[in-house]
Amino acid sequence: MTKALIICAGGMSSSLIARKTQSLLAEQGIEVEMNAVGVPEGAKRIAAAEYDLYLVSPQTKMHFKQFSEAAKKVGKAIVQIPPQAYIPIPMGIEKMAALVKENI
């Protein structure tokens, strides 16, 4: 199963977005395990190459370059989440699901 990780400031709202996105993708027949963690834990998860795709939240975009370099070292995909895809309403979840599908 493909695994995707949202890296955010704290992990609270991102956990909700991850769950809703995982559910929507499952409804579409796409099995993706999605989780969310804060920046320090995200850096560790990238270094350990635990996920197939890393998604960097808008509020942590200042870390993207560092995360991108780390993901490249372990051969994993990483993208920045646009603000429109980072809201836990149906429109935002659909955009997040599309972002995941484009990058897995």
UniProtKB/TrEMBL annotation:
The keyword Lyase does not apply. It holds the Pfam family PTS_IIB. InterPro entries: PTS_EIIB-like_sf, PTS_EIIB_2/3, PTS_EIIB_3, PTS_sugar-specific_EIIB. It comes from the Bacteria. PROSITE patterns: PTS_EIIB_TYPE_3. The keyword Nucleotidyltransferase does not apply. GO terms for molecular function: kinase activity; protein-N(PI)-phosphohistidine-sugar phosphotransferase activity. The modification Phosphocysteine is found at C8. SUPFAM superfamilies: PTS system IIB component-like (SSF52794). Keywords: Kinase, Phosphoprotein, Phosphotransferase system, Sugar transport, Transferase, Transport. GO terms for biological process: phosphoenolpyruvate-dependent sugar phosphotransferase system. Residues 1-104 form the PTS EIIB type-3 domain. NCBIfam families: PRK09590.1. This is Cellobiose PTS family porter IIB component. The gene is celB.
